[in-house]
Amino acid sequence: MRLRRLNLTRYGKFAAFPFDFGELKPGAPDFHVIFGPNEAGKSTTLCAILDLLFGIEHNTRYGYLHGFDNMEIGAEVEFSSGMREFRRRKKRSNSLLDGHGDPLPETAILDEMAGLSREDYRFMFSLDEAMLKKGGEAILASKGDLGQLLFSASAGLADLSQNLSSIREENEAFFKEGGRKHDLAKLKEDLKDLAEKRNEFDTQASAYAKLVADRKNAEESYNKALDDRTRAQREKETIEAIEIALPRIVKFEDLAQKISDLGELPDAAPELKDTPSKLRDEAIRLETELKGAVARAADLEREIDQIVVNESILKEGEAFAELDIPRSKSLAALEDLPKRKIDKDGLNAKIKVALRDIGRDENETAHALLLDARTKARLKELGDSWGTLNTALKSAKREQEQAAEKERKAREKRSSAKVVDTGDGLRLLSGVVYHVRAGSFDTKVSDARKKAHRLKAEFDRATAPLSPWSGSAEDLRSLRVPDKALIAQWSSDVTAAGRALKDAETAVQALSADLGRLLAERASASAGFGVMSDSEAASRRGDREKAWAEHRRRLDSNSADAFEEALRADDLVMSARINHASEVAKVNAVAAAIIVKEAERKTAIEACEKAKDEEAALLKKVADALNFVSGHFSEKMDILAFKDWIEGYGAAIRALDDLSEVEDELSGFETDLCEAKSRLREALARVDVAFAESDDLRTLLQLGQNALDAGTTLKGLDEALTTAQEELKQRDKDFSEAQKAANQWCADWKTACESSWIGQTHPDATTVLVSAIVEKLKILEGDVLKHDDLDYRIQAMDDDLENFEKDVREIAERIGVGVDGRSSLALFDILKARIEAEESRVRERERKLHGLAQEREKVAKSRDAHDQSMKSQGEILSLLGVETLDAALDVLAKIATRAGYQENMASEAKEVLGRLKVASMEEASVKARENDSAQMASLKADAQSRFDEADGRMNTFFAQRAQLDSAIEAVGGDDAVARIEEQRRTICLEIEDKSLRWFRLRAGVAAAERGLRIYREQHRSSMLSSASASFSTISRGAYEGLSTIVDGAREQIVGVVAGTKATRNSEEMSTGTRFQLFLALRVAGYLEFAKTRPSRALVPFVADDILETFDDVRSEEAFRLLVRMAQFGQVIYLTHHEHLCAIAQTVCPDVRLYRFD
Length: 1157
Prior knowledge:
Blueprint: E1 2-11, E2 14-20, E3 31-35, H1 42-54, E4 72-79, E5 82-89, E6 96-98, H2 107-110, H3 118-124, E7 126-128, H4 129-140, H5 148-155, H6 160-174, H7 183-200, H8 205-261, H9 275-305, H10 311-315, H11 317-321, H12 324-357, H13 373-416, H14 424-439, H15 441-463, H16 473-478, H17 484-529, H18 534-554, H19 557-579, H20 581-629, H21 639-686, H22 697-754, H23 757-761, H24 767-815, H25 824-880, H26 885-916, H27 921-928, H28 933-971, H29 973-1034, E8 1039-1047, E9 1050-1057, E10 1063-1064, H30 1071-1091, E11 1101-1104, H31 1112-1126, E12 1131-1135, H32 1138-1147, E13 1152-1155
Parallel strand pairs: 3-12, 3-13, 7-11, 11-12
Antiparallel strand pairs: 1-2, 1-4, 4-5, 5-6, 8-9, 9-10
Helix pairs in contact: 4-30, 5-30, 6-29, 7-29, 8-26, 8-27, 8-28, 9-25, 9-26, 12-24, 13-22, 13-24, 14-21, 14-22, 15-21, 17-20, 17-21, 18-19, 21-22, 24-25, 25-26, 29-30, 30-31, 31-32
C-alpha cells in the first residue's frame, strides 16, 4: 500500500493543495522528503494522512478555516489489487467516498491495513518526536520481552498473552494446587451437606404411607362437601331469581292490558307527534312572508320610476376620466417649471468656466470639444502603461548590471577550483560507495564474530552439564541417544511401577490398621456386655449338647453336674444375647468384617511382592539401555537423571548447530568484505585517489566520499557558471526589449494627441496635462448632458399645460358649462362634480333594480313553500285517517303512549327471561307460579340450611388436609430423598465436566505458552540483531550494538560502548543517543514487519522531524536506515531543516523532494 497522490482539499489552512508522490520506480527506494519552514503545514500533513486512513477525529483542530462540515481529504492509493481513489469527509457515518462521491465501507481501506488500529499505526508508522520518545520508552519498559509489542503487531498476536492469562485465572478459580478456596472445594462441601441432609430425611415408610392415605381421605371428603355446597347454592339462587322475577311478570301483564285498552291505532312512527303543530305554524309564517315580499316589490317599482338621468353628461365620463394623468402632470409642471429654468441658467455659467479652464473660448460650442470613446480609451491606455514601461526599463537596466557582476564572480570561482574527473569514474565510485554503505559489510563481519564468540561460549556452557560424559563436538554428534518418546515411556513406566509399589504398600498398611481396629471393637463389645458372637454361642451350645449326650449315656451325679454346668453356661449366653440383641448383631457384623479384611490383606501382600519384582526388572532394563548409550554412565544413574541429561544433550546440540550456522555466515561475510574493499580500491583508482593497501573499509569509504564531495562541488560550480551566463544573456535581451517598447510608446502618444483638438492646442502635452484635460472634459460632458436634459424637460412641461387646458375647455363646451374667466383647473373641478352627480343617480337606480329582482324572487319562493306545506298537511291527515290537525295530534299522542308501554314490556321481559333461563314470558309465568309464597320460603330455608352445613364440613376438611400437607412436608418422605439424590448427581456431573475442562485448558495453555515463547525467542533474537546493527550505524560506531541483561525478573536492553565493552542503559545515554536508540528499535520493528508481508501490503511510514537531536553525521546514517526501509515500503519524511534535504539527496540520489513554498 502506498500513497500515489494526497490532496488537502479543505483541511487546516490548505485549500486544494496536492502532493504528487509519483509512480514507484522499479529497483529504486520509495523515499520522499517534504521541506517547509515552521507553520508551513508539516504536522497538518501528518495528521491528514492519519485522518484519511482512519477517519477525521470528532474533536479535530483542523476545521478552523473551512468548518467541520466542509473538511475533505482526497487521495489516490495503490493497493496490491490496483489503484483506487478515495475522498474522506468529516461525518458521523459514510465519511469515506470513492472518486465519484459515492459512500464506501471503512473496510475498503482497513482491509489493507493488516489489522492495524489508529493507535497501532500512530505508534509504529506515524512518528513525531514525542511519539518516537514515548514509543521507545514503552519498548524498553516491556518487562523482559523486547519485541513483545512490535512482533505482536506484525504477527496479529497482540492480545494472546492476555487471553492466556485470563484462561489460567479461570482454571485456577476452579482448582489450584495447594489452594483451599476454589470452586472444586465448594462443590465437595455441597456434596457433604447433601449427605447429612439425606440422613436426616431417612423416615420410616409406614409412617409416611399413613400420612399420605389420611391426606387422600381428607381430600375426598373436602371435594364431596364442596359438591354439596355448590348444589345448595344453585337451588338457593334459583328461588331468589323467582322471587325477583314475579313482580316484573305482573308489571309486564299490566302493560299489555293498557296497550289493549288504547284500541286500534294506525302504524305511524311516534316521532310524528309534533309534526301537525309544526306544519300549522309553518303555513302561517309562509303566508306572512309572501304578503311582505309583494308590498316591498311594489315600493321599489315606484322609486325607480322617480329617478331621472342626463345621458349627455354621462357620455363625457370616459373622456373626463382620461384627464386624471394630464391634470397630475399640469400640477407638477406648475410647481417644477420655475426651478428647472433656474438650474439651466446655473449650468450655462458652469460650462463657460470649464471652457476657459481647458484653454478654449467661453462662447465656443461645448459639444464640439467632447472626445469620442475611442480617443479617450487610447489616451487612458497609453497614460496608464507609461509608468509600467518606465519602471520595467529601469528594472531591466539594474538586473543587467547585477547579472554581469554575478557572471564575473562565478567565472572567478570556477577558475580557482580544483579539477576533478566528473565523468563515468565518479558515477562508478558513487554507486560503489552507496552499495558498500548499504551492505554494512564490516558491521556484519563484526557482529558475526561477536555472535560466533558468544555461541562458542554458550556451547561450552551447554556441554558442561553433560558430565560424566566428555568428548569433542564430533563425539557428541556420534552418540546414539534414544529418542524422547522412548525415554518418556521409560520414565513413565518407572514412575508407574514406583507408584504401584507405593500404592500396594499403602494398601497393606491401611488393611492392617483396619483389621486391628475391628479386632479391638470385637473385644470391647464382648467385654462390655458379656455377649458372644454367633460362632462363640454355637460353640457353647455344642458343649451343652455334648454334656447332655454324656449324661444320658452315664446317668450319674458327675454327668448330671457337668450337664447342669454346661446348661447354665448356655442359658447365660442365650440370656445375654436376648437382652443385648443389638450388641449381638454388632459383634456378628464385626466378626464378618474381620474375615473380609484378613482376606483383603493377604491379597494386598501378594500384590506388593509382585510390584517389587516388576520395579526391579524395569530398573535393570533401563540401566542396560543407558550403558549401551555411553560407557561413561555409572550404574547409579537412574531414568530421571538420564532424562535431565537428555535435555542438556538437546541444548548442547542446538548450541552446536547455531555455532556452525554462524561460522558459515562469518565466512560469507568476510568474503563479501574483501570483495567490497576490492571494488572500492578499483573505483578510487579510476578517479586517481591515492589509498594504502592496509586501509580498512571505513577509511576507503571516507576517501570515496571525499572524492564524491569534491566532484559534487565542481559540478555545482560548473552549473552555477552556466546559470550565470544564461541569466546575463537573458538580462541583455530584456533590456533591449524594454528600450524598444519605450520608443514605440512615444510614437503612439504623439499620434493619439494629434488625433484631437488637444494636439493642436497643446503640441507638447505630457501625460499629466492630458490626464487633467480629460478629467475636465469628463465633468464638462456631464454638465452638457444635464443642460440638454433640462431643455427637454422644460419643453415637455409647457406642452403638458397647453394640452390639458385645451381638453378641459372642449368637454366643458359639450356639456354646456361656461369657460369664460375660469382656469383649466377650476373647470376641471366643476366638470368632475357634474359628472359624479349623474353617475351617482345611475348607481342608485341600478341598486334599486337589483333589490326589485330579489323581492320578486322571494315572492316566487314563498308561494312554492306555502303550496308544499299545504301538501304535507294533506299527506299526514290521510295517513292518520283524520280531517283536522287537532285530531291528528290526538292520534299521534296515543301512538307515542303505546310505544312507551312496548319499550317497558321489552325491558321487563329481558330481565325475567335472563334470570329464569326460559324462552318466553308464558314459560316464565308458569315457572314463577308453580309454588305459593309459603312453599317458596320453605324451600329457600332448606337450601340455606344445607348450604351452611356443607360449608362447615368443607372448612373442616380443608384445615385437616392442610395439617396433613404440613406433616408430610415436615417428614419429607421419598420425594425429599429423591430431590437430594438428584442434587447430588447434578453436582457430581458438574464436577466431572469442569474437571475435564480444567485438564483440557491446562494442557492447551501450556502448549500455547510454549509455542509463543519459542516464537518470541526467535523473533526477539532477530529483531535485537537488527536493532543492534542499526544503533551501531546511527551512532557511527560509538556503540558496538545492543545487548540484554537480566535485572531480577526483568530483561533490560543496554547499549554496548565500543572498545570498552561497558554497557549503558537508556537513562545513562545523552538525549541524542537515546533518540538514536529509539529510532533503531523502531526500524528493527518495521523490518520485522516487512518480513511477513509483500511490499504492496506494507503501509506508508511517515516521520515528522524526528532527527531534531541528531548531528549531521548521525542524520546521514539515519537517512541510510530510512532508505533501507524504503526498499520495502513507502517512507515519507517531513522537516523544516533545509540542510537535511541536501543530506538526503547525498545518501539517496533517487529521493523525491517536495517544498511547501
